[in-house]
């Protein structure tokens, strides 16, 4: 089995360890606030690869958003359901999730980059399918067409990125304008971030 295919099992096996290890300092706050500034009050937010719901989903819920979180690891979704029972949490694969509605915002924070190049291209159509008019999209990526194998809990952890120009072209083709894009943002632990809006 290729490392990209092992990801769901890895996060399920180590969901409790990841819950312990995940940084709760909310270094993402600046970008989340930029997102919130573009959204209506009580915005419906789709978080693809939501993990265990902290700290990102928690912060958005505290700001009045209505969250729908999707994650392929059942134990992570169970943690979300315990913490935020008034919101919607679904076990599913972000690549083929089937939802009955559109959303004011879509997040794929530190989740899109675990997919293969082909799957990342396909995800742009998923983003477009679930984006309401004027919806925002916030995601992280790399900067060059590449693959990398890290590790977590002693197991291989797959990452991939498209080239920046390809991300821009795909976003344009699926109806998104880039509002802001920062490479290796020093204010956000070196993440490369895209904030986009549906035209």
TrEMBL record:
Cited Pfam families: Methyltransf_25 (PF13649)
- Specify whether Cell membrane is a keyword of the entry: no
**Molecular function as annotated in GO:** methyltransferase activity
Q: What's a BP term from Gene Ontology annotated to this protein? A: methylation
- This entry's Enzyme Commission designation comes to 2.1.-.-
Q: Which keywords does this Swiss-Prot/TrEMBL entry list?
A: Methyltransferase, Transferase
Q: What class of enzyme is it?
A: transferase
All residue ranges annotated as the Methyltransferase domain in the record = 45-131
This protein is called Type 12 methyltransferase
């Amino acid at each position: 089995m290729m490392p990209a295919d092992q990801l769901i099992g890895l996060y399920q096996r180590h969901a409790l360890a990841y819950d312990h290890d995940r940084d709760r300092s909310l270094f993402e706050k600046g970008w989340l606030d930029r997102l919130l500034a573009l959204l209506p009050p009580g915005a419906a937010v789709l978080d693809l690869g939501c993990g265990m719901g902290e700290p990102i989903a928690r912060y958005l819920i505290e700001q009045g958003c209505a969250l729908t979180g999707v994650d392929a690891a059942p134990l992570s979704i169970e943690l979300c359901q315990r913490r935020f029972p008034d919101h919607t949490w679904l076990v599913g694969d972000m690549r083929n999730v089937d939802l009955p509605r559109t959303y004011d915002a879509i997040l794929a924070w530190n989740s899109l980059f675990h997919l293969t190049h082909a799957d990342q291209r396909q995800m742009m159509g998923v983003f477009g399918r679930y984006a309401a008019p004027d919806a925002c999209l916030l995601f992280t990526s790399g900067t060059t067409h590449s693959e990398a194998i890290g590790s977590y809990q002693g197991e291989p952890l797959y990452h991939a990125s498209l080239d920046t120009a390809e991300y821009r072209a795909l976003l344009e083709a699926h109806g998104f304008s880039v509002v802001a894009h920062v490479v290796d943002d020093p204010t956000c632990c070196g993440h490369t971030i895209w904030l986009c809006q549906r035209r």
